[in-house]
Amino acid sequence: xxxxDICGETVTSEPDMKAHxxxxxxxxxxxxxxxxxxGVNYDxxxxxxxxxxxxxxxxxxxxxxxxxIQYGTSDNRKDNTQQCRMEINSSxxxxxxxxxxxxxxxxxxxGTLKHKAFYSENLTKSRKFxxxxxxxxxxxxIKGSVYDTMYSPPECPFCGKIEDCTQDMETHVKIxxxxxxxxxxxxxxxxLYDCPMCGxxxxxxxxxxxxxxxxxxxxSFRQGMDRVQCCRDLELxxxxxxxxxxxxxxxxxRQEREEFQKLQRQYGLDNSGGYKQQLLRSMEREVDSGRxxxxxxxxxxxxxxxxxxxxxxxxxxxxxxxxxxxxxxYQNTATDVRHVWLSTAVDHFHSSFGDKGWGCGYRNFQxxxxxxxxxxxxxxxxxxxxxxxxxxxxxxxxxxxREGFDPQGASQLNNRLQxxxxxxxxxxxxxxxxxxxxxxHIVDFHKSTGPLGTHPRLFEWVLNxxxxxxxxxxxxxxxxxxxxxxxxxxxxxxxxxxxxxKNRTLCLLIFDPGCPSREMQKLLKQDMETSxxxxxxxxxxxxxxxxxxxxxxxxxxxxxxxxxxxxAD
Length: 569
Prior knowledge:
Shape: rod-shaped
Distance between the termini: 138 Å
């Protein structure tokens, strides 16, 4: 009898041994029973199992056998060791052969080996390894070597049954567990079925169908959860969008209210009182700060009440005689001026405590009316009038609205001016003059006509208004023309004349209601200096607002013309 040095297999003759070595150990490669490693020789495989699968390779039931080897007599130690080595070889060979045979059964017709997860998950844990205890010094020859490893008899990977040899185990697996193999032994041509969803291979169509149903149920469950989550996400997004829209609308509404309130305050429509209330509050602050004596407060308060009662301006902000002073100045000085045209006599009115910040339109109307009252051509329509105070002017405009003049403007100001600090502009001045039968018209300069946003055409229009003949006249001309009301965004002023300088440039002479009386009175001095005119002179480069409006007086309206104007409005 011959014994194989590799696996311990015994054969009867030398040819049988050669056939055994060729078939088992040369044609069939050694495969690791634990991780399917292949392509190495037998010693390398033993070393691999010892190092990589230390805990998996030992079995508790071999402990007694190992003890017998370690603590046995020296006479039979070599025999036991040789027997253990043969059993180890046989175990490794049986595991490798069993693995190769079972794997061979799963080959497809094209010869490609497919490893199946279906039955590999059902395999029992591989045999555990117990390394020989190093208590005896005479065991040093086998310490650290794969030959120290002991394997138990082959165990069924499906039911755990232990057989005496590999052939018995193979017979047991083929008979008892043929249905669990990739391809049944009885019918190697049985078709295989691949799962279309995960690629797992089945030999039974009904099992595949049940497996696929599980996939579909899981997919349906996930889709249902996805739909629920999607619905929740949509609801959350919708809620967030609604909340964002609500906040945006709330913020826009708040900004609109603030802007509207700002405009109301700016144009005096915030119900904070009018001329009388502002004047009283301003004087009270002056008293509180010590700049006004209480007796002065009561005196001014009495004068105010009297002025409001009779509706006539008290004249405390008026400066008269400026046009005459300008005439004398241009006659005797102003060598750089070629021609100058002046309007009829005009009194300057400046803002007071009662209308500071909003009364420029009313003060300019007082200037214009003061000139008309000194012009005999307007005695018929203005006979018996005096320059009214600001509350009286507000009342006069409301009366013009009630007569039917400028209904659109009346609507914008809520048909109310008295008791407010509402601004007035060119349209209200036109409405008031027309209601007094003063013929006038409005001229719009709605865009710049020169470089850098200037309005040279406005200057040319004023020149044509005051002078019909530019050449051959005197240097200083006091015309019969009333002053011109000049409006731009946020402020209004009064044009009382125009200069033509020797370099042919034009310069407007303007009364500003924002200029206090003490500055205007400097123009009344006999030795008036040129620097004092700086506050009156406005060159082309000084007027750069986007738009301007002019109200120019042309004469007196007849009763019929007044009715037509009223109907036209």
